[in-house]
Amino acid sequence: xxxxxxxxxxxxGPAGDxxxxxxxxxxxxxxxxxxxxxxxxxxxxxxxxxxxxNEDMKPVLKFLREHGEVKAFKWTNPLxxxxxxxxxxxxxxxxxxxxxxxxxxxxxxxxxxxIVQS
Length: 118
Prior knowledge:
Layout: E1 17-20, E2 22-26, E3 32-36, E4 42-53, H1 54-67, E5 73-76, E6 82-94, E7 99-109
Antiparallel strand pairs: 1-4, 2-3, 4-7, 5-6, 6-7
């Protein structure tokens, strides 16, 4: 099955958190050897917020619920980099009977095949 693309824009000002998996060994003479773990040692985390009318937010919520925390999708991050991501920490807040806020965190995902811009 082809990867779907997340196309909705979050509220202004998303801040990315970049984490790196590393291994290190400290030697007696003060030298430390550090290396990245695996072929993809970087993980990006993007906490995002979407606010709007219920009818506008329902497709966003449907997409995120269909993918859950398991299924990866394509998304272009605020730096303009196309990548694979998974959604986690999904939360919906009803502001009233007509509006809602969706908060979610996108985390990088990896796969063997390259991502093709569609």
